[in-house]
Structures
1.
Amino acid sequence: MKARILTVAQSRSPALGVLPGAINAQVRQTQTGNHPAAGQAASGQENAPIAVPSTKPASKKRKSTEQHEPVPSVDLDSIDLEGAPITENCGQVRRKINNLLDSGAVTKTAFANEIGVSVKSLTGFLTTSGPDNGSGFAAYPAAWEYFKKREIAGVKLPAAKKQKTSTGSSSKAAASAAVDLSDVVLRGEDPDSVPVFDSCDEIRRKINAHLKKPGVTQAQFLRDVNAQLKGPSRPGRPFQGGQLARFRETKGALNGAKSPIFYGAYVFFEKMRIKEGKPKSKHRLDMEKQWGSQGISRDHDGRER
């Protein structure tokens, strides 16, 4: 089946407006004369991205008191992407948004205002997972257009906040923490019925160890866990830090078994194990013997009587 190729014009939310001018993702040349851009055009280099200061009136986008990124020296509105095909899938655009928000340079509300969509649309897009899920949200083409303009203008994205560690940063560990698990599929994944062969205490131990890795943030981990839920266990809104804290604070082999965080974290760590080619642990093998092919029961919480 041929993939559908979206363009900015086809998928843009009405809130973004229509950018007039060339379709080839070039900066509108509003001034000529002695500007270096004129020399480039004269020599036939019309396809080279040109950053020219804009002479149009200031943008009328509504202002927000939320935290914004530093204003780029290049006017991104002078870059016209009308009709340009969207060259990144939903997962790639979503990852860029999350990295930007994790950097602390801008809040979700401010970013939504910046790209001209509602916070509801942006939140809805961020809570989906997979390369194709989320294309119906206005935030998808709007965010792609925003990041593409930055790329053309040569404006780099803010770096993620560095975490302090006792042993220093480890690029290898950070790369492992950001491993792509989209190519690992488990039996029963779609209806959220993957057999679980870890106790709640074992999952809590794995969570604690994972969060100590350089480059891993709690926010990213919760997004990773949320992405593993595809059926009835998937929450209506993203997991919050308080939910994770409550699960981590409980004790007992089955205490917390009904929590979607427990199930989602198990699927996440199981995919990590398979991706990294690691063998099953002794605990895992013992659980398989004890519970059989169906895994532990998640219908009963160990705290219930």
2.
Amino acid sequence: MEVSFIAPCKQSHHLPFLNFPSSKQPFKPIHRKEMEKVVFVMGATGTGKSRLSIDLANCFPAEIINSDKMQVYKGLDIVTNKVTIEEQQGIPHHLLGTIDPDADYTSDDFHRHASLAVESIVDRNRLPIIVGGSNSFIEALVLRDKYECCFLWVDVSLPVLNSFVSDRVNRMVGAGLADEVRGIFKPDADYSRGIRRAIGVPEMDRFLRAEMNGEDAETRERLLGMAIDKIKVNTRGLARRQLSKIHRLIDLLGWYVHRLDATDVFLKSGGDADVVWEKQVLAPSAAIVRSFLQQRSEDANRTISMNAITTPGPSLIISPTIMATSVTAATR
């Protein structure tokens, strides 16, 4: 399945209250009058989290905060699968490609920066959507700050997802993964810090050393193939670990999570996949978020269901006046 970023609610961007201030402006902490409402989009790598967050931000006045611990770093856009400027569709993205690649960015750092981003977004009467597969970052933010939270979990059956992520690695290699990693290669690099921890970097070490040492073409080709296979194995392992952590958040911490099964999307292609995405993932997600925004704060978490969402919710045609009012009221 090729991931496309469709925007069935794109008309919301024509509203006058949706003129985006620059996301590069410094954040200024604000005094909290009430608990802010925040939407979290969770899921294993490759399931379509970024697509859903962008589609939702086209349905609601919203901005996106990245919570992927590798995508926070500058550089290696192919390796870390950052959404492109085109795919962002004009939606402001925070903490995406902003951190020095050699820095050791921790959960504490994310908590501090994301909290300020949430406050900045809410201060503009917009909805914060936090998206990413680094559940430790999400957990650090939720457990330390008092937000009214709506959790959306994009799920895909592991056999289907494993096949997809392997194909995605092949596409990444075709897009220039090797050249990208070659650009930051250092023989004495520390693969336990910064962006060099990203899957796709340490796996290329032996191949790049062979290049540097002038090994023959056959050896280099063999080592490159081994590196690509290792990247696939490690990416599949990452997906399993991310799923385990999501189940932990549900089972041990008692988080209320909406599960959106996107498996059928990955079994289709082209326009058929888009139709299934809108029906089985985007429509119910938009309905859940709309209900979340319209609820009173004290009732919000009590009514969130942990069951799988399999049917589309109400129509995605949302009155601009009603939605503007709902987001303004709910995020303050």
